[in-house]
Amino acid sequence: MNVLLVDDSKAMRAIVKHKLREAGYGHWSISEAHSGDEAYEISRTSPPDLFLCDWNMPGISGFDLLQKLKSDGCTARFGFVTSESGPEARAMAIDAGALFLIVKPFTAEDFQLAFESAGLRQ
Amino acid sequence: MPTNSTVEISPSDVAQIVESVFGTMLSLEVNQGGTPLSPDENHLTSAVYLTGEWNGALLVDCGAEQACRFAGRLLSMDPPGTVDDDVRDALGELANMIGGNLKCLLPHGIQLGLPSVADGGTLHFRIPHAEVMERLTFQCADGSFWITILRIAPKAEA
Predict the structure, then answer these.
(1) Residue B110 domain-assigned (yes or no)
(2) Among the partner residues B74, B76, B100, nearest to A85 by beta-carbon distance
(3) Does A9 sit within 8 Å of B89, measured CB to CB?
(4) Domain residues for B50?
(5) Which residue among B8, B40, B55, B79 is the one 20 to 30 A from A3 at the CA level?
(6) Mean pLDDT, chain B, as a whole number?
(7) pLDDT class for B122, splitting at 50, 70, 90?
(8) How many whole angstroms separate alpha carbon A91 and alpha carbon A14?
(9) What is d(CA A53, CA A79) in angstroms, rounded to the nearest whole number?
(10) Cβ <8 Å between A83 and B109
(11) Is the model's pLDDT at B158 over the cut of 60?
(12) How far A13 CA lies from chain B's nearest CA (Å)?
């Protein structure tokens, strides 16, 4: 599984990678992008199997990135890892084609549950 | 429609959010109580703004050494010896996580801004037309830190 981790916070990217290892996904290949724009560029040349994306970022937001990818016909799976904790954000995300929304603060188990419910296997 | 002045936030709800963020992300038990906020020259403030039907900000205040320890815990590494971008980034993420969860206590449609961090000697973080709505002091193994919720008057009310 090739994962593209998109977050403007280097700290948060490191935390998510740590939690993924803790959750048993340490063997997945994880690349990083520090903005939605960078993620979009990467997706055009080497699309990942899964985007793990923050919502609020400078430049294009995670939600805008998802919409842009979907309108381009990108078939990669997409999930949010975000502080957006309200039901509206979850509904918007799912309606736009995201598979899950993991709310910060999160545990390793939150990743396991989200991935299992999305049919992603270790 | 709620206005800025009619929205109330329960301190116990805020405390629950803070305990959850620190417990889950830093494996750190925090409890309310400790010394009142008195910023010194080694002080950092991270802030995240909330805008919409209610306008305000969430601030996290702590000492520089404590910010380094928080960063070490958050990033699962030895605490940096001095405040660097990793420390600022980590403190900003703490404000972001607390602010994001605080949204659930506020009217629908509130937008969460990007976190910012102020540090550097005697610099003080001031927001025009803001008043302190709640300020909670917390104690943990790494010392005291403070969470402040500011209510910011919209321009028409200011």
Answers:
(1) yes
(2) B100
(3) yes
(4) 11-32+43-118+129-152
(5) B79
(6) 89
(7) low
(8) 27
(9) 6
(10) no
(11) no
(12) 9
Partner residue opposite A11 with nearest CB, options B86, B99, B100? B86
**Architecture of the A7-79 domain:** 3-Layer(aba) Sandwich (3.40)
pTM of the model: 0.91
Per-residue model confidence (pLDDT) at position B137? 96
CB distance from B106 to chain A under 8 Å? no
Q: Cβ contact (<8 Å) for B100 and A104? A: yes
Distance from CA of A18 to the nearest CA of B (A): 8
Q: Is the pLDDT of residue B22 over 90?
A: yes
pLDDT of residue B108: 86
Evaluate whether A1 touches A79 at the Cβ level (below 8 Å).
no
Contact assignment for A85 to B99 by CB distance below 8 Å = no
User: Tell me, what DSSP letter sits at residue B121?
Assistant: B
In this predicted model, what pLDDT tens digit does every residue of B58-84 receive, in sequence order?
Answer: 999 999 999 999 999 999 899 999 999
B1 pLDDT above the threshold of 80: no
Distance, first Cα to last Cα, chain A: 8
Is residue B94 scored above 60 in pLDDT? yes
Which residues, 6+ apart, have CB-to-CB distance to A43 below 8 Å? A4, A51, A69, A74, A76
- B67 phi, psi to nearest 5 deg: -60, -40
Is B158 a domain residue?
Answer: no
Chain A nearest-CA distance from B46, in A, is 14
Residue B138 in tokens = 């917390």
Contact A58 B92 (CB under 8 A): no
CB of A42 within 8 Å of any CB in chain B?
Answer: no
Q: Do A56 and B74 touch (CB under 8 A)?
A: no
Residue with structure tokens 């910012």? B116
Q: Assign residue A84 a region (left: φ > 0; alpha: ψ between -120 and 50; beta: otherwise).
A: beta
> Mean per-residue pLDDT for A4-9?
97
Indicate whether A43 pLDDT > 80. yes
